[in-house]
Design a protein that fits this description.
heterodimer; A: 286 residues; Thrombin, subunit H; six-stranded antiparallel barrel; 5 helices; 34% helix; 28% strand; rod-shaped; B: 159 residues; mainly alpha; Arp2/3 complex 21 kDa subunit ARPC3; 6 helices; globular
Chain lengths: 286, 159
């Protein structure tokens, strides 16, 4: 027992002395390098602190450079990720810039006065029915103003202003099943009614059965419909349906001139319509 | 053969502690498996081997850390010696006594380490959360580690 006790005493003195020596005297360069390499490999984050330089004071320069290269590499990887995100954002902005430049160039040629607005909210439940734009009564927008979209370098009818708030407005799209427009068929100006169906397609109705309606014919707004300015492209005839046995007119599918799904900006044409044409509620307000 | 096995256990403890700290840290808290291994080795092994295990495990903890080199080695060496003295008077084979020993020695080690910090380096503010929680985690780890070491000793003659 005494021998064991002596051995324990010797052991504790021996190991304690080594520990104190390690604490008191700076370890050799090799030992220090091994220590830094081990701790850096296992816990690299420990070396990012402000006291980092204190720990590498005895480490050879080439090894320090290696550590710094690794840290620099990590920093650069973070930066690359950030720049990739910025690049994505920049490409979106570039595309928007090109689109807006084309639209602005076109708007100068439009014969109407109005304001550009951005589409800010589309409702999934009413995708082909309506959306909101970021201009309202403060920008001079009024109920029943015509909303145009630009596609393929040409203005097309998108809908009309349905509700107006100070800073935004609700647009009733022509594709809404409650919307319609009196239109004229090129080239002879035969009038008919274009109606929304709640889908991306429009329906042309009340075309006399004797009319020679062909696929691809352009449909424009008619001077007879006061709601919209005359001559705005509404769409093109896609498919003609022959007369039903109990009707004396034919119908057709119309591909809208404006694709609601790709619409980002719209041009709101100020109509200044007479009060009598406004909705009953609007008239009461005035 | 025994030396190789002991070296393997030593490295496994270090790797296990590192893996646990990297993957299973709970609010930044992990049981100090190096401490637990040092305590278990001190309980199970003879005095010289127990103290040597404490020293080398402490050295491993020092290598992982970035502050005073040798402080953990000294702390665990003294802890192993304390255990050697205590186990002659108390039965440390029961889980309850291991839990009590782990709790008291954890705090002893932390305070001693901080004390060394006051002497050998600039004083560091004590992390109260670690001070309060880690001894309990250690106390849970020690009986488990003891069983592992006990089986290793019985089967392979380690320690």
């Amino acid at each position: 027992m005494s021998r064991e006790k002596d051995a324990a005493n010797y052991a504790v003195v021996f190991f304690a002395a080594i520990s104190v020596l390690l604490l008191l005297f700076p370890v050799s360069k090799i030992a220090h390098t091994v220590r830094i390499a081990a701790s850096y490999s296992l816990y690299p984050s420990l070396h990012y602190g402000a006291s980092y330089s204190h720990y590498i004071r005895n480490v050879p320069d080439n090894f320090v450079k290696l550590l710094e290269t690794d840290q620099e590499n990590r920093g650069l990887k973070e930066k690359v990720k950030e720049l990739e995100v910025r690049l994505q954002s920049a490409s979106t902005l570039e595309a928007e810039n090109a689109r807006l430049a084309a639209e602005m160039g076109l708007s100068r040629a439009l014969p109407w006065t109005g304001a550009w607005a951005r589409v800010i909210n589309k409702t999934p439940a009413d995708w082909y029915g309506s959306f909101f734009i970021d201009r309202g009564s403060e920008s001079g927008i009024a109920v029943n103003d015509t909303v145009l979209g630009i596609e393929g370098g040409r203005a097309g009818l998108a809908g009309r202003i349905f509700e107006v708030y100070p800073k935004f407005s609700k647009v009733l799209l022509l594709t809404n099943s409650a919307a319609s427009a009196v239109c004229a068929l090129a080239p002879d100006g035969l009038e008919a009614l274009v109606e929304g169906k709640g889908t991306w397609m429009l329906k042309l109705n009340y075309v006399p059965e004797e009319a020679a309606l062909a696929e691809g014919v352009e449909v424009l707004t008619s001077p007879g419909g006061l709601l919209f300015p005359a001559g705005v492209l509404v769409g093109r005839v896609r498919k003609v349906y022959q007369r039903e046995s109990f009707m004396n007119f034919i119908t057709a599918d119309i591909v809208p001139a404006v694709n609601v799904n790709t619409l980002k900006e719209v041009f709101v044409v100020r109509r200044n319509l007479p009060e009598e044409l406004l909705g009953a509620r609007q008239a009461e307000k005035k | 053969m025994s030396i190789i096995l002991e070296l393997a256990v030593y490295l496994a403890v270090g790797a296990g502690y590192w893996w646990w700290a990297q993957n299973l840290a709970f609010f930044g808290l992990v049981p100090n498996l190096v401490f637990a291994a040092a305590l278990c080795a001190a309980i199970l092994a003879g005095p010289v081997k127990g103290i040597a295990w404490g020293f080398f495990l402490g050295l491993y903890a020092d290598i992982l850390g970035t502050s005073m080199f040798g402080a953990n080695a000294l702390t665990y060496t003294l802890m192993a010696y304390t255990v050697y003295v205590v186990k002659r008077h108390f039965d440390l084979d029961s889980p309850f006594s291991q839990v009590v020993a782990a709790l008291s020695l954890s705090w002893f080690c932390m305070l001693f380490y901080r004390g060394l910090g006051l002497v050998f380096s600039s004083p560091n503010p004590m992390d109260l959360r670690v001070f309060l929680a880690e001894p309990f985690l250690n106390a849970l780890a020690v009986p488990v580690m003891f069983q592992i070491f006990y089986r290793l000793k019985r089967r392979f003659g380690v320690l």
